[in-house]
Amino acid sequence: MSRWRPSPDEERWLELASELGAAVPRAAVTGRAGGWRSIGPLARIALFLLGIVAAALLFGILGFGNETSLLAAGLISLLAAEWLTVAKRLHASGIEEGLCVAGFLLLGAWITTLIAPRSGYATGTVETLVLIAAAGAAGLRRLNPFVTTCAVLAFVYWVGSTATAHAIDQTIGGGVTAVTVGCALAALALALGVREYRRPSHDRMLDWLVATLPVAAYAQYATPDAYEVLRSPGGGTSRLATAALLLALGAAMLFVGVRRRRHAPLLGFMGCVACLAVEMRQVTALATETWLILYGFAALVAGVALDRYLRQPRNGLTSAAPTHREGPLDVLQTAGAAVLTQRTAPEPLPSGSTVTPGEGRFGGGGATGSY
Amino acid sequence: MHTLEPELRALHAAGVIDDATAARALALDRGEVFSLHQELRATMYAGVLLVVVGLGLVLARNLERIGPLAIVLAIALAAAACGVPAVRAKRAGRALTVAGDYLLLLAVLLASTDLAYAERQFTLLGPLWSWHLLLLAVVHAAIAYTFASPLVLAASLTSLAGWFGVGGTLGDALHFSYSTPMLGARALACAAVIAAWRHADRRARPDTPFSNVFDHYAANLAFWGAIAWCLEWPWLAVGLPLLAALAYASVRHALDTGREAFLVYGIVYAAIGICAATTPRLHGTTVSLGFVLIVVCATAATLWQLRRRLREPSP
């Protein structure tokens, strides 16, 4: 039993309590979880943000312009996070995670002030790498999949922006280095995810990487700068290589996701399909609105077909919701419907105007409303 | 991958969980039951988003070439086609599936686009043209009730909020430069209408599936309105007590129902309101930052303590 973090067994009990909710009495799990305490997803997100804000405010109070403030604010934030962990036995509760991440980042920023000569936080510099390492260390300390994933995604971006990557890109095509590294890391995470882990958090870290890396790596490749490079001779080869990479990775993810019945590889597969769709759009002469509508209908048709196929559970696969309790995704869905409605409905009033309700301003059925 | 099977078996053997709960949890843990519900939702949402954005571009770029009447008819036809699965499900007495629900949402959004475009082109409502936001809210609500679709109800409430002159998204809440007392009054009026609607809906249909959607809209709009009032004197004198009352009601609702979101709303919005009301009246950056830091720490502690008292939701 450790004072600094839950043991694997304790973490598993915490995970079980989270999954079963009210079906298991809290007291029955508290003892088995070694007295560690966790919290629900929405409150965790809010507390995580509050932790980050608190550390930023502390830094501001100590003085934005002073380099020593970085060290002091970082240390105080880290100490506060560790105190919450050791004394209050908080794990995955948000507040200690936010403080820890901000503390590590502030310390990392302070370390970069010691590096000479300074090259700033431009892409591909040692300073940026130090910050990425700080974020990664915070994620590993807190066993937080979101933070470790952010660190890995930033690392992929960093790799793609180094001078070496630019030199390689000149040969194999703009942005292909970052895509290759991202896909390789996603494939590695996919392969490691097949093993059995005692800690659910380790499993989750790999899951997040599998689900996000393909899209994140491709997003860097699909930047306008990369397209400039792609227009140069050899751009077609790099496009082909990228498509082949995404295709291979997507196929592997679909296979693993269906076979192992895991959500992360399936989400990764969906990401690969989306990237391939963008890639295909580049090799066709379709107008933007045409391919948006075509791909939109393709997604709808695929969704409807899958929904119909799984209306009756087949071999345990179903399209029905696994639980009826309201989660963050349900709130997100309602917010998403509101956003979509705002895109199509007439634009609301600017709030500073003096008109009365009902005197809305026309926004039009589209992006801007200006026909 | 990991499995929690040993822990589940231990709980079951100790009699902490019953047979049904254990069997269900074990089936999920082993992957014997595997739901693709979230993947389907993501796919359908992406599809609807792409079609809506693409249609917006079509209207913007090809207006002259296609002609307004052809556009209106084509969109109306597409909207009708998207509504077919929902109509068929209704006739067969089935509940809407996730795909049917999203297709119905797309139908509604296409109809919104069509109406807005037709109004623009043919000025159907004349000087009262802006009232078609309210018309949309009513039509969407009728469709939502006909097909029992919370997604379409969200579209209806967004249109209603738009008619009141409130955006209805988080982005609008963060535009504090826009947060005049007038905006606050409109947001509060809209929240009151939605709360009354929710109450009537609940009375008419005790098993309504819409309460959650009503609650989120009413809570967010009411908090935005109260915070907007906290920014200017003399509205502050009403805004702060109102914010306190709303925060209390939201937290109470959370504790009674076990809905975590309302605990977060109550505490975080109250903290934002306090900071928005107080910091402009403090002198000096350090004092202001120090005050906000104290509020943030108090907010975190309160949220943590109250979250521990929250009833756990059922699986």
Model description:
The complex is a heterodimer of chains A (371) and B (315). Chain A is mainly α and 371 residues long. Helix content of chain A is 70%, strand content 1%. In chain A, helix 7 packs antiparallel against helix 9. Chain A is globular and about 60 Å long. The C terminus of chain A is likely disordered. By secondary structure, chain B is mainly α. In chain B, 77% of the residues lie in helices and 1% in strands. The longest helix of chain B has 25 residues. The model of chain B has no long low-confidence stretch (mean pLDDT 87). Chains A and B meet through helix 1, helix 3, helix 10, helix 13 and helix 14 of A and helix 1, helix 2, strand 1, helix 3 and helix 6 of B. Strand 1 of chain A pairs parallel with strand 1 of chain B, so a sheet runs across the interface.
Salient structural properties:
heterodimer; A: 371 residues; 15 helices; 70% helix; 1% strand; B: 14 helices; 77% helix; globular
Give the low-confidence spans of chain B: none
Number of helices of chain B: 14
Order of helices and strands of chain A: HHHHHHHHHHHHHHEH
Number of separate strands of chain A: 1
Overall outline of chain B: globular
> What percentage of the residues of chain B does DSSP assign to strands (E)?
under 5%
Task: Summarize this entry quickly.
Chain A has 371 residues and is mainly α. Chain A has helices at 8-20, 26-30, 41-62, 67-88, 95-114, 126-142, 145-161, 163-172, 176-192, 200-221, 224-230, 235-260, 263-283, 288-309, 328-344; one strand at 317-318.
Topology:
The complex is a heterodimer of chains A (371) and B (315).
Chain A: H1 8-20, H2 26-30, H3 41-62, H4 67-88, H5 95-114, H6 126-142, H7 145-161, H8 163-172, H9 176-192, H10 200-221, H11 224-230, H12 235-260, H13 263-283, H14 288-309, E1 317-318, H15 328-344
Helix pairs in contact in A: 3-4, 3-5, 4-5, 5-6, 6-7, 7-9, 7-10, 9-10, 9-12, 10-13, 12-13
Chain B: H1 5-13, H2 19-30, E1 34-35, H3 37-61, H4 63-66, H5 68-92, H6 98-122, H7 132-147, H8 150-163, H9 170-174, H10 181-204, H11 211-229, H12 236-257, H13 260-278, H14 285-309
Helix pairs in contact in B: 1-2, 3-6, 5-6, 6-7, 7-8, 8-11, 10-11, 11-12, 11-13, 12-13, 13-14
